[in-house]
Give the backbone structure.
Amino acid sequence: MSAIIELSGISKQFPGVRALDNVEFSVEPGETHALMGENGAGKSTLIKVMTGALQPDGGTIRLAGKEIRPESPGAARAAGIGAVYQEVNLIPTMSVTKNLTLGRLPRKFGLIDWSAARAIAKAKLARLGVDIDVERPVGSYSVAIQQLIAIARALEDDARVLVLDEPTASLDANETERLFEIIRDLKARGLGIVFISHFIDQVYRISDRITVLRNGRRVAVGTVEEIPSLKLVSLMIGRELEHVEHQRPSTETVTSSKPILTAKSVGRRRLLEPFELDLRPGEVVGLAGLLGSGRTETAKLVFGAIRHDSGEIAIDGHPSSSHSPKSSLMAGITFCPEDRKSEGIVPELSVRENIILALQSKRGWLHLLSRKEQERLTAEMIAALNIATPDAEKPVGQLSGGNQQKVLLARSLVSNPRVLILDEPTRGIDVGAHAEIVTLIRQLAAKGMALLVASSELDELLTVSHRIEVMRDRRMVGEISGAEATREKIIQTIAAAS
Amino acid sequence: MKFAHWLTGTVFGASMLLAGAPAHAVTIGFSQVGDEGDWRPAFSKDMQDEAKKEGIDLKFADAQGKEEEQLKAVRAFIAQKVDAIIIAPVVVTGWEQVLREAKRAGIPVFLADRDVDVTDKSLTVTRISADFNLEGRLAGAWLAQASKGQCNVVELQGTVGAAPAIERKKGFEAITSQFPEIKIVKSQSGDFTTEGGKKVMEAFIKSTDNLKGICGVFAHNDNMQLGAIQAMKEAGLNPGKDFLLVSVDYVPAMKDELAKGEASASVELRSAIGKYIYPVVLNYLKDKKELPRWIKIPSDLHHAAAPND
Amino acid sequence: MSTPTPGTPASPKPAAEQAQPSALKALLRHRLVWPILALVLVLIVDAIISPGFFQIRIVQGRLFGNLIDILYRGMPPAMIALGMAVVISTKGIDLSVGSIIAVTGAVMAWRIHEGDSHYVILLTALCVGLACGLWNGFLVSVLEIQPIIATLILMVSGRGIGLMINLLYGGTNPSFTSPLLQGLSTGNLGLVPTRLVVGAVMIVLVWLLVRRTAFGLFLESVGGNAKSAWLSGVSSRLILLSAYLISGLMTAVAAIILTADTHTSDPVTSGLYSELDAILAVVIGGGSLAGGRIYLDGTIIGVLVIQALTTSILTSGLPPEYNLVVKAVVVLIVLLLQSANTRAAVVSLLARRKG
């Protein structure tokens, strides 16, 4: 069988970095080919080359045997290469129809033919088995539906290759399953799929072959049978992975100490049912639940980013009258948000400025940390969290997703918090960084910090948490701790709550 | 302080001076542009005061600078069957239709201030206004006389493309070009503002090595000249003594400068022009005699008590 | 504790070949290179078309010359542009600065007419600027109206307010004399024009506020990502409000200098289009209307580029009909050089030629 798309000898040089070095990559019709690698391995660059967003310094791209040189994503799409990126590139305020037909609006007598446009939008979605109201703005749909709309937009009628960059990052299990059905269907129609994900189990469920990149080089290619998961991870990080899974922390040490933060029947109407929560020094509390169950809302409410309208939050036993991000910060509570891009990083500011931001705002505007002090703290954090950046002055927006996440962690940690609230700390992060963060959470707890970790990954929660609060439909439905904390038990709790 | 009326502009339509009060109260509609600047509110006030004196029932409409407001006002005048309409037009174009309506209703239309662009010239009776060109010529003539026909002049132009700037420049040059020894050596736009005049004069002072060889300054309005005077004084120069400064408008602040002898002359842009306009209108209503297309309101030039000689 | 140094030593490469192009490239990449280059180019053209352009003499006991003029005339726009840079760094814009000048000037002339102490008037003028800034800031930060709309309100109404103040005591374009205020604007301290001293003091004050307190970091974080700044404990609302207050205050300083310069209050034309020059200066200086960064040095250079251009057009003897076109063309060239794309093209072109 001949490849539908074949990249050979692709090289790309950035100032100071060889992002791609003579890389080979090909996808066959009806194949799902996973592209794996740590952050900075060259996955994004390779995709950008494939989709015309970047021009390679060397090498050739062949589509169905014919050499092409896509000069822009539009040109690539016209040639039959569609791509959907991790951050959905739709215009949320515009209708689904407009998003799907923008730039290709059908015209009648020189005027836009909206009914034809609607029909086109409907048809595009129907190919993915999606039937929604195409007049509503994209922003009014869930992330999962938006993802499908983005796929529909990427697929021209004669598309031959579809690139999916972390398509499941924001999806829950059901939504992921639905996406996989669509992928299988597209495969059956002869499309070649390039699949990028940090969920290793998903990679094995959906992929036929795997290509592993490391430091801009292709280090392995083979079928999923040829590259089992343990080998895959070692190939990606270039060393043997220690087994961190399910070494659950012991619970005895912490239960006796006095809580730092207590939430007493705290809730917010139409958003969260009232709940109880204690955060004790040295204890990691997990927040588990499906997408939309209220994990993020709970974390934000505890931090003060969402105002509660019932109950009381007390810090060291004293009720906090005006609970806000600022007051939490002053009390030694910090928060790493889930949505890095919109709530986390300040992209134009440097790594240093991003890291010291919360500490500086805690100190007040008049007491500027000296430049020397800032640099010292930044250097410490870069070293401690292993942040991959050429220097502390690089704008954070130019770092990879995992490193941005680490910068956010550093921002929280540098102010020496007593309570750390993490919302999806490992989302969109590669395996190596994932393990580092898990280890870090444990170390922090061991040093006496109280942690609240919201995550969609049960294994991660089981690995780090002393106690797990289970959420469902914006309600806390159960608490699991000690030996009974297992995957099955959590799933049972979620299911039993109905 | 004495101001001599040095020169009076050529006057057409001497008949306007012979106008007497009409037997019955005449109703006139006057559509004014708006109330921007100093001159126009004074003009509006004079029109209303003079109407009272003449016993005219004046219907005054302020168009607030908007074309459509003005058209509305004129149509309202037609509906009210006024005896005559005076328009100070907001814009030059777009008048054909409404003027035809007035003509059909048998109401004569007079223009004050600006002209309108219509193919059928019979749609309006006449235009009664000051003549920017004449103002320029007056300034030029005065300068030629005061410098005895020998002068290097720097010019502060008004806003580029504005009618007063174009016409005042043309008029000034029409006279000074008769004198081979009068040259305009520098010319820049000061946008009719004091700040602009000051800025431009500062630059002139630098680029001419402290106005070396310059004898006169012609500014298209007083505000710019006032700025130029400040700039010259700050550079240690003596405006009005070592330089002849002539401008147009004759605003109150310029009166003071003329009194102090720091400016030389200013051509008055009259705002009290009701006394020139109404007689023309009233006479026409009486005898319907054809008038020249443009009746120019005379301009006066005022100069400092002791002009330098 | 010491900073851990990266363990990789610089690889031994032929230094002569390597250092040259990379040093040049680094220089070309520095954000101030293009605005400074533009300034130098304008000055070189001046030197060619009008000899003696750079001459500085002492006239009437003060420095005198085109270069002094550029600084002298550039001082009020520099004040406005610095305030604008602060606002723009928060992803905002202040279209009302021209109108603030008109209102402040009108209040000054009125209070002088009423016989207030001129020191009090100085304070009053600054308070008028602050009040205007407070109004803008209130609309933007509390009512969350988009800055362009919020400041448009004062932009449109300000000149009318100025005219109404003039009418309070019957004057149209009233003039005044004030040794104190005119001294600040047109006087000199020793050889140096007083307004340059005032300007330098204000520049230092703004620099201290932005770079020697955490205010600058908070401004940039609010402009770069307001949600993130808020979650990091920065009071975005307060920061936004203070940005417009600073813009109002700096504009008031400019208004005092400009009004005392011509010692009249002319609300219709004073400070007309100054918002556009201020925005342009910020952009020439490397600022982006998308916010998130503030470059005080670049902004000052931007002001000087625009002012040098204006002064040189005035001295060049070019017919005034060309003024705006020449200005537009030069600004276009500067902005093209500023754009990352053009810059990348130039850098790669040079690199290719070298390599």
